[in-house]
Design goal:
single chain; mainly alpha; elongated; transmembrane; 0% strand; mitochondrion inner membrane; 10 helices
């Protein structure tokens, strides 16, 4: 089911024996590997180099949206989870700075793709054409994405905005530039900085709330 790949790198001795054949394998599912050459979406989704950071991005993006929407309210924050995620972000940010070499340029492909999808959706909600989005370097659509995320989400539910192959193509169009400019270590640093900043801000919110309650 999973593809076994022998790596040229030394196999860690601490690993259990049944895991050693998988060292160096970045493909999640072996049966999808034959489709990777013809389908870049499958190639990205079947790579652990993309899926792993995507899970970590989710730990930052969901709370970040909560900061804008005010939900959950500060009094309902899970402090244990917030402290743990903040600490994880800080530690991994330092780790991303010191590891060498780390040039897995595909590390942040899926988050960038998702981001571009949402920018396009927000842009369409305001009647912005693809040409204008490209000409403005995405700046206007980025502003609209934050300012009217709720409006865009509502239009998505109604089916007014068609986010399918066209928006996916828009999202992937900028990946070549990002891949050249964003080595894996930098991407790893960014995602963990985001994790630390978002949950650090939640800790600050909780502190200010507690201080105002005790005053």
């Amino acid at each position: 089911f999973f593809r076994k790949t022998m790596s040229a790198a030394p196999t860690p001795k601490a690993l259990p024996g049944f895991m050693k054949p998988y060292v160096g394998n970045r493909h999640l599912f072996s049966f999808l590997k034959k489709h990777e050459a013809t389908n870049p979406v499958i190639a990205n989704c079947n790579s652990v180099l993309n899926i792993a950071p995507t899970f970590k991005w989710a730990l930052s993006i969901v709370p970040l949206m909560g900061l804008f929407s005010g939900n959950p309210p500060v009094e309902k924050l899970d402090m244990g989870q917030t402290v743990a995620l903040f600490s994880t972000g800080v530690v991994w940010s330092f780790y991303a700075v010191i590891i060498r070499p780390q040039w897995m340029v595909s590390l942040a492909d899926l988050p960038k793709e998702i981001t571009m999808d949402q920018l396009r959706a927000a842009g369409e909600a305001h009647g912005i054409t693809d040409t204008k989005i490209v000409q403005n370097g995405g700046k206007n659509s980025a502003v609209f994405a934050f300012a009217d995320a709720d409006k865009a989400a509502g239009l998505l539910k109604q089916g007014t905005i068609k986010v399918g192959e066209t928006s996916l193509a828009t999202g992937t169009s900028g990946l070549n530039w990002f891949n050249k400019m964003l080595p894996g270590s930098r991407a790893l640093f960014m995602v963990n900085c985001a994790l630390a900043v978002v949950h650090g801000w939640n800790l600050r919110r909780a502190y200010v709330h507690k201080k105002s309650q005790s005053a």
